[in-house]
Design a protein that fits this description.
- The complex is a heterodimer of chains A (499) and B (424).
- With 499 residues, chain A is α/β, with parallel strands linked by helices.
- Chain A has helices at 39-43, 60-71, 94-100, 103-106, 118-135, 147-164, 181-188, 206-212, 235-244, 337-373, 394-397, 403-412, 440-459, 461-465, 478-483; strands at 139-141, 171-175, 192-196, 217-223, 248-253, 272-275, 295-297, 309-313, 316-320, 389-392, 419-420, 429-432.
- The radius of gyration of chain A is 26 Å and the shape is globular.
- With 424 residues, chain B is of the alpha/beta class.
- In chain B, helix 5 (92-109) packs parallel to helix 11 (317-351) and helix 6 (121-136) crosses helix 7 (149-159).
- Chains A and B meet through helix 1, helix 2, helix 3, helix 4 and helix 5 of A and helix 1, helix 2, helix 3, helix 4 and helix 5 of B.
């Protein structure tokens, strides 16, 4: 039975362009206090546009209704649990939003004099120090804008370090359980990708690794805990194998929420890693960004970090651009500062003990979900799990119901789906990460929903295969969307049936 | 919960970890702070950043008024705390706004398609260059020196291992626009793309048509960058370009000491499959209702892995939504009026100073400091609670006696008069 939700009315809404009419406006500019210029005179007539064709024209109340109506068509953490594995969808504290909008922070220009930016620089320095302590690494750059950007920065650091030692090498090893960003990143950094098969236990196989680590290997990119939620228990040995051959160990920090305060990558042999501030450190996901992808390194790699670097000079902070070994810039200015502010606020709120408690709760929640759902869903890998657990749809597939169907049915029960069909090494993967945010009450509702769906698969598989049933729209035709892409509104395409 | 898991205590959850990896001490961080203490800490830091100063800085980051509606909308938990809209049935809000965003970027730039956002303008440049290399099968990139210096630095970092050969071409010492002869000399059959910025780093509107003609004659693409999106309210879009890559910070995105901002790439329809980044398309659900979903994802890393067009995953969705609300609030008339105010303010200020170049400018221009050092002028301005222009010597040694000044709708006339006095 569906207990968590029941349907209510939601407003229909057209696209902005379809509710637009000439002359409507939602703004008020101050009166110009200087002489108005003739644009054709100032810019040359050929440089002045006649109009912005079809650009919206709506009133203020229409604008706010438009966006409010659209917002109600979204699911969000503020509605409930988001069991997306490897995405760490945790609560986004609102005090973080407040502090990031303080005038002195939000309106600071990146080129304002350093004497007038000491507060911003102090925040960045404090965050660098905290992240170095949490990861057990020696130095941190806050410049990368998101996880994949951090990966690229990290692999460029590996490359610069090895080049300096005489040979950048040719290959990056990537386990088959890795995120797609890992191989894409290695390719952009000019490396060939060699996929590593996981062992039957679901972790890196030390024997296989011994054979493939040659003088051609620049680094291994590993996610730990891996995407099965399993801690790579051979990690120290793995690091030794790489280091013996002069290769480096890169860690994708996507799953750092399982480790904070419990174990530090720097202590188990990692040379370079990135963090996702929008996962572990609670900055909001915002429907797909912005994120933050700081990179932490051991001291051997520090000289290669992107410029500029924060430097203490007497009693003030300054930006240091004079670093001849640096890989250069990976973006303009200093990083997604507003995201950094939020991440530091999260760290300050928790403190060392609080961060560790969050990890314990996250791991406990995942283990609880595992224990309660194991009788109903196939668990292909049996090793103890950390902050997430991966089931397969093996039993349900026998009834013709796949992981994607079960995920869609979860929507009817008032939950966002888990991560579907990932990692690729599990057929029909159902990857669940509850995070520390969820109470036992919410977890039990989720578990009950999953159990109820397992029963529906037996009693009425069609019900599950055609889900969701309670949403504004049903399953969408993704095939036509890709085959005949409509990527923008055009006046001629206005369709009366759309209302 | 521990009982269900069959565990004695919570520590047992980690019993399987090798002893050697365990952290055996508490993290060396301060104890957790209350909400009030957190606010106090950041308020103190904010007070060290000169919030009470008037500013004439531009150079890729602009002070524009942020309509109240922008934060009202993006603070809604349904937008703020939602994930990437892979599950279309419960993400139509985000998907619809991205579709509108893509449409408005096309309307502004004159391109056929636009993506859902890139990290920022600077990273959109190498992504556009790599896209041009894929389209043409060539690796030569000619970048104008009048493109934002930090954007060129990012391009250099990315290009090093991508097989791109980057060369720069100059600008006219008189007009501040690209040196077409220099460009023509350097173009050859290996050139994949020419990159220019308009308005350029000096604030000057570029000769887009002439650059496009030269590039196209040699089989190269033209990439046009913009950093000041408000200029699109009044400037003829660079429709001759093959790819437009830009920064939307001007659209109600706070300067925030350098980020987060939102970049974007727009292009011709025929190049869409080589474009990086997420795209939203219109489709139908099984009942025939209009619906939107992420599409053409076979370009992306989660499907194509090492053969993807880019490694980008998380982008700047919420920031793009800010730009979306901004464009909606100002709309067709408002964006033009806003652009006209900027143009008028900058003309007024330039009238009181000595502009270095003769080319037509939008809301920024290079001004000579009359033989005094830019640092000395700026120091004098700080005493009047004014942050002056960016001294250009740092990026252009040949322009060391000048500053880049920007005037927007937020700069009042008396501030401009006061600034001009310091140059006398």
């Amino acid at each position: 039975m569906i207990k968590k939700v029941r349907s209510h009315l939601s407003q229909n809404e057209t696209l902005l362009f379809e509710r637009s009419s000439p002359g409507k406006r939602g703004y008020q500019l101050p009166e110009l206090d200087v002489p108005v210029v003739d644009p054709a005179d100032a810019l040359g007539a050929e440089n002045v546009r006649a109009e912005i064709r079809d650009f919206p024209e709506v009133s203020e109340v229409e604008a706010i209704r438009h966006f409010t109506r659209l917002s109600t068509w979204n699911y969000a953490i503020d509605h409930g649990m988001y069991p997306l594995g490897s995405c760490t969808m945790k609560y986004n504290p609102r005090v973080n939003e407040l502090v990031a909008r303080m005038e002195g922070l939000a309106w600071a220009h990146p080129y304002q004099p350093e004497v007038l930016a000491q507060g911003a620089m102090e925040i960045m320095a404090r965050l660098e120090t905290a992240l170095a302590e949490i990861t057990g690494m020696d130095a941190v750059t806050l410049q990368p804008a998101a996880g994949a950007h951090g990966e690229l920065t990290g692999i460029l650091l590996v490359r610069a370090f090895l080049e300096r030692r005489g040979n950048p090498r040719k290959k990056i090893l990537i386990p088959d359980s890795a995120h797609g960003t890992n191989p894409a990143t290695a390719a952009i950094a000019g490396y060939a990708v060699e996929n590593l098969r996981s062992s039957e236990r679901g972790v890196l196989d030390v024997g296989t690794l011994e054979n493939v680590v040659t003088e051609d290997v620049a680094a291994l990119m590993v996610t730990n805990p891996n995407t099965l939620g399993v801690f790579e228990d051979n990690i120290i040995h793995v690091a030794e194998i790489l280091h013996r051959k002069g290769a480096l160990l890169y860690m994708d920090g996507a799953n750092m929420n399982a480790l904070v305060g419990i174990a530090r990558p720097g202590d188990f042999g990692v040379d370079v890693m990135h963090l996702n501030l929008h996962k572990t450190f609670s900055t909001p996901h915002g429907g797909g960004g912005p994120g933050g992808g700081p990179v932490a390194v051991k001291k051997e790699l520090e000289p290669f970090l992107p410029i500029p670097r924060l430097k203490r000079s007497g009693r003030k902070w300054t930006w240091n651009y004079r670093r001849k070994l640096s890989i250069g810039r990976v973006r303009a200015f200093y990083g997604n500062f507003g995201v950094l502010v939020r991440a530091l606020a999260y760290i300050l709120a928790h403190g060392g003990e609080g961060l560790r408690n969050a990890t314990v709760d996250a791991v406990l929640n995942a283990n609880y979900v595992r224990k309660r759902l194991e009788p109903y869903y196939d668990l292909p890998y049996k090793l103890p799990n950390m902050h997430e657990v991966v089931f397969s749809d093996d039993r349900q597939a026998a009834r013709g119901v796949r992981t994607g169907d079960i995920a869609k049915r979860l929507i009817d029960y008032g939950f966002h789906p888990y991560t579907v069909s990932f990692p690729l090494i599990v057929r029909g993967a159902m990857m669940i990460e509850p995070t520390e945010t969820e109470s036992k009450l919410e977890l039990d509702q989720f578990i009950d929903a999953m159990i109820s769906i397992a029963e529906e698969v037996e009693s009425d598989p069609e019900l599950v295969k055609t889900a969701p049933h309670g949403t504004r729209i049903s399953r969408v035709d993704e095939v036509t969307a890709a085959r005949r892409p409509v990527l923008r509104w055009k006046p001629c395409c206005c369709d009366a049936t759309a209302r | 919960m521990l009982d269900v898991c069959g565990l004695e205590n919570a520590e047992a959850l980690f019993g399987h970890l090798p002893e050697a990896v365990r952290l055996k001490r508490p993290l060396a961080l301060e104890r957790g702070a209350s909400e009030y203490e957190i606010i106090e800490y950041f308020r103190d830091r904010a007070s060290e950043n000169g919030a009470e100063y008037a500013s004439f800085l531009g150079a890729g980051v602009y002070h524009h008024y942020r309509p109240v509606l922008v934060d009202t909308v993006v603070s809604r938990g349904e937008f703020l705390t939602a994930y990437t809209p892979y599950q279309a049935e419960i993400s139509q809000g985000t998907l619809t706004t991205i579709f509108e965003f893509q449409t408005m970027i096309c309307q502004l730039t004159g391109m056929d398609v636009a993506n859902a956002s890139m990290y920022d303008g600077s990273t959109a440049v190498p992504e556009a260059a790599m896209m041009a290399a894929r389209i043409t099968g060539k690796g030569g990139i000619l970048a104008a020196r009048s493109v934002h210096p930090e954007y060129r630095a990012v391009l250099a970092t990315y290009a090093r291992y991508e097989g791109l050969n980057i060369q720069e071409f100059g600008y006219s010492a008189e007009s501040g626009q690209i040196d077409l002869e220099d460009l023509d000399r350097r173009l050859n059959e290996l050139t994949a793309a020419v990159i220019i910025q308009s308005p350029n780093f000096f604030g000057i509107v570029e000769k887009v048509k002439a650059a496009a003609d030269l590039a196209h004659r040699r089989g190269a693409l033209l990439i046009v960058i913009f950093t000041e999106a408000v200029s699109l309210g009044i400037l003829e879009p660079a429709a001759e370009a093959d790819i437009i890559a830009g920064e939307l910070q001007s659209f109600a995105i706070a300067p925030s000491y350098g980020g987060p901002y939102a970049g974007v790439i727009a292009t011709k329809e025929k190049y869409v499959r080589q474009m990086p980044g997420r795209l939203v398309g219109e489709t139908r659900d099984t009942h025939g209702n209009r619906a939107f979903c992420l599409t053409l994802s076979t370009r992306e890393q989660h499907i194509r892995r090492e053969k993807a067009t880019s490694n980008i995953c998380t982008n700047q969705a919420l920031i793009a939504l800010m730009a979306n609300v901004f464009m909606t609030v100002y709309g067709k008339q408002g964006l033009r009026e806003l652009a006209l105010q900027n143009l008028s303010k900058a003309r007024y200020l330039a009238g009181k100073l000595k502009p270095r170049f003769t080319g037509p400018f939008f809301n920024e221009f290079v001004a000579l400091t009359n033989g005094r050092s830019p640092d000395a002028v700026n120091k004098a301005l700080l005493r009047k609670k004014i942050i002056g222009g960016l001294p250009l010597g740092r990026f252009y040694p040949e322009l060391s006696g000048s500053v880049l000044l920007c005037a927007t709708e937020m700069n009042r006339r008396e501030q401009m008069d006061s600034l001009a006095e310091a140059f006398q």
